[in-house]
Structures are given as C-alpha cells and as structure tokens.
Design a protein that fits this description.
single chain; two-stranded antiparallel sheet; 2 strands
Length: about 110
C-alpha cells in the first residue's frame, strides 16, 4: 500500500474515533474498506505508539481517552525530528500512527 493511502486511512480512522462514530469492529472495518484483521492490526499499532484508544460499550464505538487525536503535518526545517532516526525506516513495523502529535517532516528540495 502506498504511504498516501495509508495516511488517508489513518485520517479517516482518527475522524471516526474523534466523532465516536466507528461502530463495532465489523462496522468500523466496513467504513474503512478493510478487513477486521487489518483494522485490529492498525489499532494495535496505534496503541503501541501511545494512542489512548479504547472501545466504549455504551456508545458502541472506539474512542480516544482525554480528547487525544492524530496530527500530521509537514515542516520545512528538520528541527521537528528528534532522535536522529528516519521515520520511514520503521514504516512497515510501526505504521507511524497513534501518537498525540506526529511530526512528518520533509526537507525543502530545490533544483
């Protein structure tokens, strides 16, 4: 899957979770156009990265605790990247999602 499609799915997941309108796992997966196993993998990766996602039985929806959310943006300067690690090295392992604030920085390449 391309990075753009993956980011788009993360944004859709985030929107549905913020609005508390995911429905059960079967409905959530259907809304995203993925299998339930893919949904559970994405949720697991988001949680591993610190996303406070839980299932609320009374609302019948996945929700964020404490009003958390996903934030993606680009930056001209690379000072937003900390730790000196290229975030794309671990793309397949971590899926880059689920932290309260995620910095996706890019250099300004000029020809």
């Amino acid at each position: 899957m391309s990075l753009l499609k993956y980011i788009d799915r993360l944004k859709r997941m985030d929107d549905l979770i913020k609005r508390k309108s995911t429905g059960c796992a079967e409905q959530f997966a259907s809304k995203l156009g993925v299998s339930e196993s893919q949904l559970f993998q994405d949720l697991k990766e988001m949680k591993e990265l610190g996303a406070p996602i839980e299932y609320c039985h009374s609302r019948r929806s996945y929700i964020y605790e404490n009003g958390a959310g996903l934030k993606l943006y680009f930056s001209k300067n690379m000072q937003n990247i900390k730790g000196g690690q290229n975030i794309f090295n671990n793309y397949r392992q971590s899926s880059m999602a689920g932290v309260e604030q995620f910095n996706l920085a890019s250099q300004n390449f000029e020809s």
